[in-house]
Design a protein that fits this description.
Elements lengths: L1 E6 L2 E4 L4 E9 L6 E7 L6 E7 L5 E3 L7 E6 L4 E6 L8 E8 L12 E2 L3 E6 L1
Parallel strand pairs: 2-11
Antiparallel strand pairs: 1-3, 3-8, 4-5, 4-9, 5-6, 7-8, 9-10, 9-11
Length: about 120
Amino acid sequence: QVQLVESGGGLVQAGGSLRLSCSASGRTSSIAAMAWFRQAPGKEREFVAAINWRAAHTNYQDSVQGRFTISRDNAKNTMYLQMNSLKPEDTAVYYCAAGSARYDRFRSSYAYWGQGTQVTVSS
C-alpha cells in the first residue's frame, strides 16, 4: 500500500507561479511512475504530467508544456510540480497519483491517489 499527500496549493495571480509537492509513504519501493492530474468543477479529471520514478523521463499535457515542470526526489519519496505562467484555466483541484508500471496519461495506470490540493488562479 502507498499513501500520497499533496501540498502547496493556494491562490495566485495570473502569470504567477506555484509549486506543488506530493509525499509518498508506505510501500514506496513499488512505485515506478508518478503523475499529476487535475479536476475543475463540472469537468472530468484530466492528465497534467507524469514522470518515470527511476529515470525521470517525463510526459506533459500540451496545454502545460513549457509552463509546468514535473520532477522527483527519489531519496525523499517526493514529487514536485513547478507551475509558471499560470492561467485562470489552470484553476482546479490537483491530484497526485502513483503506479507500478507506466508513466502515461491514463488514470487506469495509477493505483494510488492523494486527496488533492486546490489551485486557484485569479485574473
